[in-house]
Specification:
This protein is α/β, with parallel strands linked by helices and 584 residues long. It is built from 25 helices and 15 strands.
Length: 584
């Protein structure tokens, strides 16, 4: 209490800037009295009474310069002390709840709307159920799949009956294909492929004989984006495990707060060197990289954006979040892009955003021409190479490297989660541009960074794919997907025209696409995902096939037989039914 009055006087002296108060404090016998210091600890009443009698303090109190402590009885002081002790105990000890309260449902007006939205997805066959798979790293492309027991013979027959009654307009199908008759390539020597995959025959036999262990079954996976099997490469897994032992499993914070390790720095240097750029920046995913980079640059540059109509959702999100003026050009239509650029303000800064390889349709951008047109009108290019890095180019740097035009790509985005076999995304560009995104991009600033172990594994994966082993894997990969496309065309399946490693087979109906997927899984132990809206437009539903170096000839033959069975049961049209010559 004595200290309280001293502090009060000091504050008043500072505010009033009067020498009198300061002088009174220094000469006051009341403040310096040992008796009063004892009284301050024992009795508020005595302390206050003596203060008023003091010639100095009394005068200050009467003028309102000094105030006295509030009188409190002994009971209130004890209660306050007990509360402080209780608070201290709660901070150091957590009580175990005697009973966990059940979760409360949402109000009816909310719950009803949500149920209606899910019902709408189920009614139009676009509702998605996650297939539970445990990939077998050393037996790729096989996986243990959880059996749901939802798919009975009765329901299968009913669904097939409905599917047959639903006719897909042939005109719609024909629009999806190139009119020119496809030409089969020679492809690699079949014996060479058989030698490379010496276990393929045994594996194919195993998958044909359905083996059920409890609630699991063997399936071959035909849609994984782990294109080259790098997720289980020994150099990659060793790098991850060693980093976990050294640094733990988590990053510990954002990049700015304890979340940057030497593994992150090494990875960004490695990626910049891979793409021949000054700098790179790693994100938790390429969705975050695209979203953050586009919205940040458009805002900081006060730029407008020209976007391909087929761009990925992450790019669309970044453009929307930037609130920048946007112009959408038809997919891969250079003339339309140039027309829009011509109509734009020549003084306005511009970003042209597109992908090199499109993930669902497998189309490739006319990359060099697109870059040249953009630069002609003063724009910078933003190219998503997510489905190209690791798979194209001498060092696996993507389609731009393969075409020899990497220098024409101003901003490149890539992923660590597909051909490189891990998780994460990145951008590569000039030092200044990368630094601006690092300094202003909320998707980087406010997100816990990639775990150091994954960064270490990514460095190892990039290193492998940039070398001779990577080039051999890419050759085998091209042989596998070329054979897949050729054999599907040979048997007349409606393969959509595309030059890349992605092999889409057109269905054109969400219900039939889903049924194809379920029949392949339940009857033939093949897992391929049906692709529907919103990933592709309605009416463009498809099965998206991906062949890896481990998909040997026997697995391919098994797939062709299974597809033939499904096509016959559902009475689906083949390519020859659309007016094209069927291969014999």
């Amino acid at each position: 209490q004595h200290y309280f009055i001293q502090s009060n006087l000091r504050n008043m002296a500072s505010l009033m800037k009067t020498a009198a108060v300061t002088l009174a404090m220094s000469r006051c016998p009341f403040l310096s009295s040992e008796v009063m210091q004892v009284a301050a600890k024992s009795s508020t009443v005595l302390y206050n009474a003596q203060a008023r009698k003091c010639p100095v303090m009394g005068q200050l109190i009467s003028k309102g310069v000094a105030t006295l402590p509030v009188q409190r009885d002994e009971q209130s002081q004890k209660e306050e002390a007990n509360k402080k002790e209780e608070t201290s105990t709660k901070l150091t000890k957590l009580d175990v709840p005697t009973q966990v309260k059940p979760a409360q449902p949402l109000p009816v007006q909310y719950e009803g709307i949500l149920k209606d939205r899910i019902a709408a997805k189920k009614n139009d066959s676009t509702y998605r159920e996650f297939r539970v798979l445990s990939r077998r790293a050393h037996e790729a492309p096989y996986a243990d799949a959880k059996v749901t027991n939802n798919f009975t013979k009765t329901t299968l027959a009913d669904e097939i009956s409905v599917a047959k009654a639903t006719n897909i307009p042939k005109a719609t199908l024909a629009d999806e294909f190139d009119v020119a008759e496809p030409t089969l390539t020679d492809g690699p020597d079949r014996k060479h492929l058989t030698d490379d995959w010496s276990q393929a025959k045994d594996d194919a036999t195993r998958i044909n004989d359905v083996t059920r262990v409890a609630d699991k079954k063997d399936v071959s996976v035909w849609c994984s984006n782990d294109y080259l099997g790098m997720s289980y490469h020994p150099r990659v897994t060793s790098a991850v495990i060693n980093a976990i032992h050294s640094n733990g499993v988590g990053a510990g914070g954002t990049r700015n707060i304890a979340g940057t390790s030497h593994h992150h720095v090494d990875l960004e240097r490695t990626l910049a060197d891979l793409h021949g750029k000054e700098a790179s920046l790693v994100f938790t995913s390429c969705y975050v990289a695209n979203d953050t980079t586009l919205q940040t640059l458009a805002h900081q540059l006060d730029a407008e954006i020209y976007s391909d109509s087929g761009n990925h959702a992450s790019m669309i999100a970044g453009i929307k979040n930037s609130r920048a003026p946007k112009h959408i050009f038809r997919h891969n239509d250079v003339s339309h892009l140039e027309s829009l650029l011509q109509q734009g303000d020549p003084e306005k800064r511009k970003i042209v955003a597109f992908e090199s390889v499109y993930s669902m349709t497998g189309t490739m951008a006319p990359l060099e021409v697109m870059c040249d047109v953009a630069h002609k009108y003063g724009a910078i290019t933003f190219v998503d190479e997510v489905h190209a890095v690791g798979l194209y180019g001498y060092h696996g740097a993507g389609l731009a490297e393969e075409l020899g035009i990497a220098h024409k790509v101003d901003i490149l985005t890539g992923t660590l989660g597909k051909a490189f076999g891990l998780v994460g995304g990145y951008i590569a560009s000039t030092g200044e541009l990368v630094d601006v995104v690092r300094s202003y991009g909320s998707g980087l600033i406010f997100t816990t960074s990639l775990p150091p172990s994954l960064a270490a594994g990514a460095v190892a994966s990039v290193d492998v794919l940039a070398g001779e082993e990577g080039r051999e894997l890419r050759i085998k990969h091209r042989a596998a997907y070329s054979n897949l496309r050729d054999m599907l065309l040979r048997d007349g399946f409606p393969v959509m025209d595309c030059p890349s490693h992605i092999v889409p087979v057109h269905i054109g109906d969400a219900g039939k696409a889903k049924l194809c997927m379920e029949m392949l899984f339940e009857k033939h132990n093949i897992y391929v995902q049906a692709i529907n809206y919103p990933t592709v437009p309605r009416g463009s539903e498809l099965l998206r096939f991906v062949a890896t170096p481990n998909h040997g000839p026997e697995l391919l033959e098994h797939l062709l037989v299974a597809l033939g069975d499904v096509w016959a049961e559902l009475d689906l049209p083949r390519r020859g039914d659309l007016g094209y010559k069927r291969y014999n």
